[in-house]
Specification:
- Strand 10 and strand 11 form a beta hairpin.
- The chain is of the alpha+beta class and 362 residues long.
- Helix content is 40%, strand content 17%.
Length: 362
């Protein structure tokens, strides 16, 4: 029996719907973080911008309190990058992605710098140091250097944070506050670490709920996990299957939303590394006339990547500049209006702000 085919535009609308980018939704920040299967958080302000674009009446201080109260946590997870997840989700996500860190670390110069070093002892001493309280990598390096003279201290500190379940602690990641990246043992900070009883299948169901319909390759791109073809075969009886326009199998949850391709998609501003643009191997479902520039945020027009944006804050003035690749008057007007709302959200209290919409350039 032939499988139903989903067009690129249908995939676009499905992803936007699940990523809360068709309509701002009235959710609590922590509930949204869980529904989105985490938020990319390499840049500490990214989750705030991402949720501002998705939630009706979003209060950044509420999310900040969740982080401070350890109900949400910033930790290295999917793709070995920093994500914001709920404390309740951390054990599942951390256990499922542990193999990623082991594989990625082996490919780094840090691993090569530690060739011949007793890595088990490095990790044991690193855990002991962290059990006394959070440390920066630089602090960790100085402590380990005294035990391993002649060994590259930065590589040892990297090994500890790659190969030990750790989290980044506040004030880094709090709203309008900053701080160095300080690391703590996940089990100390949250009261529990990775859950060894959890299964990768659970994580893949969460992925489909947030990003489906998707291919096995898409799930691999989001997570960097190996062996997912077998995982999806085990899940197949619980899923519905489609094909894309290139004939590839797409898996999805039976009751997940798949809006009509002509569903209205308002202008949306995304932060630099938003998972809506990163969670698929084939990014054609969000590709548009612009291209991603990861040193800048992204602008979606009609659901497709149509520009980039950047911000500059001086002492008393905030500037938000958009490079837009569409010239439709209505789109330009809507982009300018949304840019003004974002500038008002991001500008330091008491600052004036300006918005400029310019032609996108190669």
């Amino acid at each position: 029996m032939s499988l139903p085919v989903l067009t690129t535009r249908e995939l676009n609308r499905a992803t936007l719907s699940r990523q809360m980018l068709l309509d701002r939704v009235p959710l609590e920040p922590l509930d949204a973080v869980e529904s989105l299967a985490g938020l990319q958080a390499q840049t500490p302000t990214d989750p705030y911008i991402g949720l501002w674009s998705r939630l009706d009446g979003f209060d950044p201080e509420r999310l900040s309190r969740h982080i401070e109260e350890r109900r949400a946590v910033r930790a290295p997870l999917m793709r070995a990058t920093i994500h914001l997840v709920s404390a309740a989700d951390y054990p599942l996500f951390a256990n499922a992605t542990r193999t990623v860190f082991e594989r990625v670390f082996r490919s780094t110069p840090f691993a090569r710098n530690l060739d011949g070093v007793d890595l088990d002892r490095v990790l044991r001493l690193g855990r002991e140091a962290l059990s006394d309280g959070p440390l920066t990598r630089a602090e960790m390096a100085r402590l380990l250097e005294t035990e391993f003279p002649g060994v590259d201290p930065a590589s040892m500190a990297q090994a500890v944070t790659y190969l030990t379940p750790v989290v980044q602690v506040p004030p880094r990641g709090l709203w309008r506050r900053s701080g160095s990246a300080r690391w703590a043992l996940a089990v100390d900070w949250l009261g529990e670490g990775p859950d060894p009883s959890s299964r990768v299948e659970e994580l893949m169901l969460r992925y489909l709920a947030a990003f489906g319909p998707a291919t096995v390759s898409d799930a691999r791109a989001w997570s960097n996990l190996a062996g997912l073809a077998e995982v999806f075969e085990r899940l197949r009886p619980r899923l519905v299957v489609f094909r894309d326009e290139k004939g590839r199998e797409l898996f999805d949850l039976p009751d997940a939303p798949r809006p009509a391709p002509d569903a209205e998609a308002p202008v949306r501003f995304l932060p630099e590394f938003d998972n809506a643009l990163l969670a698929h191997a084939d990014r054609s479902r969000t590709a548009g006339p612009a291209r991603p520039t990861w040193t800048m945020g992204s602008v979606l027009v009609d659901g497709f990547l149509s520009g980039n944006w950047r911000r500059e804050q001086s002492r008393d003035r905030f500037q938000l500049t958009v490079k837009l690749a569409v010239r439709n008057r209505r789109a330009v007007r809507e982009v300018a209006e949304e840019a003004g709302r974002l500038a008002s959200f991001l500008a330091r209290p008491g600052s004036d702000f300006d918005v400029a919409v310019e032609d996108w350039e190669e």
